[in-house]
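Input (structure):
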């Protein structure tokens, strides 16, 4: 019997980001610990979100797991602080030259690799941007590899974070790993106001939470007569005007003009 089975731990590089498995045969960090891990692009700092657990050897991973190298040390923290300073300087410097070059782009974040060998500049723009001259200026100023990454408005909201109209931290920042397709039909199906200001998030797009209960509403409404359909009730025939699927009730306008609310079970076949 193997007394020291292979173990893995789940980590996130960003809050609400994808969870990656790393090998931890020697180090056994707790959930919430910050660790330095080995990646394809060098060392990186991540946060443990899933405690160590044995690796199921009957289901080998598609490729060998990279290793957790160590818990974050005081020296590592100093390197992180230094990186934050570089990021702030690079952000201000880049904004200055975006303005001087009159580039149609909105820079919102700069990230440095752990070893400070590369700076990634994140921006949004309505179309493709020719930033070749800007990259030359940045390379000359910082003497590191420069990467310009254009992202969508949803990804900008996920990276920057904020408070939604519900009073909670953005779903995309706190736990969503990917963006699912969202349509106005979801709002209609849930009986929500179609006013764009009511169903749009801070990013200006339809709120991600419209997808959370959509399947439930769709399944519940399958048994309901459609809006405008004629049904028979104890007060006579009438036309369906509204659904209240959560309470299993609907509103019917009967022939005398009165609108009555009845249970779905009260419809006379």
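Output (sequence):
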């Amino acid at each position: 019997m193997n007394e020291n089975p292979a173990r893995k731990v789940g980590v996130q590089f960003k809050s609400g980001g994808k969870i990656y498995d790393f090998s931890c045969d020697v180090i056994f960090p707790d959930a919430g610990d910050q660790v330095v891990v080995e990646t394809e692009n060098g060392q990186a700092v991540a946060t443990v979100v899933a405690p160590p657990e044995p690796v199921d050897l009957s289901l080998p991973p598609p490729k060998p797991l990279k290793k957790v190298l160590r818990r974050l040390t005081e020296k590592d923290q100093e390197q992180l602080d230094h990186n934050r300073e570089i990021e702030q300087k690079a952000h201000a410097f880049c904004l200055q030259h975006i303005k001087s070059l009159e580039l149609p782009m909105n820079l919102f974040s700069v990230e440095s690799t752990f070893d400070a060998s590369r700076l990634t500049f994140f921006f949004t723009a309505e179309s493709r941007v020719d930033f070749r001259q800007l990259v030359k200026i940045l390379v000359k100023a910082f003497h590191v590899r420069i990467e310009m990454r254009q992202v969508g408005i949803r990804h900008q909201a996920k990276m920057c974070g904020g408070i939604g109209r519900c009073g909670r931290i953005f779903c995309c920042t706190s736990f969503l790993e990917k963006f699912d397709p969202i349509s106005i039909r979801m709002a209609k199906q849930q009986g929500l106001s179609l006013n764009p200001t009511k169903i749009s998030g801070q990013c200006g797009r339809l709120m991600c939470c419209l997808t959370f209960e959509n399947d439930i509403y769709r399944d519940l409404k399958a048994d309901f007569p459609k809006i405008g359909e004629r049904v028979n009730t104890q007060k006579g025939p009438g036309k369906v005007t509204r659904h209240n699927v959560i309470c299993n009730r609907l509103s019917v306008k009967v022939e005398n003009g009165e609108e009555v609310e009845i249970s779905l079970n009260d419809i006379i076949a």
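Notes: Residues 40 and 226 are 55 Å apart (CA to CA). The mean pLDDT is 90.
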